[in-house]
Amino acid sequence: MIVNSDCRHFRGExxxxxxxxxxxxxxxxxxxxxxxxIKLAAMGDVLRTTPILTALxxxxxxxxxxxxxxxxxxxxxxxLPEIDRLLPLNxxxxxxxxxxxxxxxxxxxxxxxxxxxAARVRSPRKYGFLMDEKxxxxxxxxxxxxxxxxxxxxxxxxxxxxxxxxxILFEMGGMEFRGEGYRFEIDGAAREWATSxxxxxxxxxxxxxxxxxxxxxxQFAYKGWRVDGFAELxxxxxxxxxxxxxxxxxxxxxxxxxxxxxxxxxxxxxxPGATPSLHRFAALVSRCRLxxxxxxxxxxxxxxTGLPVVVIFGSTCAQEIEVYGRGRKIVPTVDCHPCYKKxxxxxxxxxxxxxxETVFQGIKDLLEELD
Length: 371
Fold this sequence. Notes:
By secondary structure, this protein is of the alpha/beta class. The protein contains 14 helices and 12 strands.
């Protein structure tokens, strides 16, 4: 039973129930069902967890959703109408959530801070992952057992699993994934900045652009494709398809951008410079016809803005990525893929095995399908 402790008719064993009226009671909690989501990091994982919001709203409306996230990722969730309260992970949040009570608590993270917080939260229904008395990660219920096993069974994760992240996520929450999309709102100031930036670079409002995200993050070294591959690809996109290319990345990608510009036999390159914020990056991405990227935050940004993607995979699992029917997955041909290793001793790595021709053909096929 879900207790409405604020109801003036609260009494003993027969308290009011959220959204339902007890005998003689004409009040209910206006917040509806109280829901807590704990998903702290990484940024790409936070973004690809947002489809759960649509499903929760459909299932429990009226409801009040609180999401706890690491401070650096709050920008990904700010402005979403589905989230009633966005809390950064800090001591104030931990203390507050130790007192409040929720009807449903979902922890979709495996890191200690997340599962420890989830274990302490007061809620009769918990989903996902928790921390037990010994400090170990445990599934909250049987719905999370498959996701739990993926963390320990490499053969299951790398080869036997055919479910996408979203399918696994919804399964943990006791729901069925039905194609719910990412939720992300680009703020107006970022869109104005992107428009001004493109105007300055001589890009007309209706021009068809291909975005190439040159970064790969720093967690897995072999997520990123080769600089020479990007340079050759840019030349073919401009020369054979007649489209200009936007080189996307932040400050730490500047060296790769410069190297691509130097190596590319192409006048169709557009360099907007290091993108200073998540929303400005997303605004630049949203103007593209499609985006070529690795399995990175940029891929999730493109999917969140509804764009088609050509994803070049390195050491990570392609089958876990949901492209919503508007993408091409370019997968390495080496036998050891995927591996999730941070270093590689092979002379020819997984990303080295992917040819420019394969990526270019993926772009052509996708554009033909879209047109």
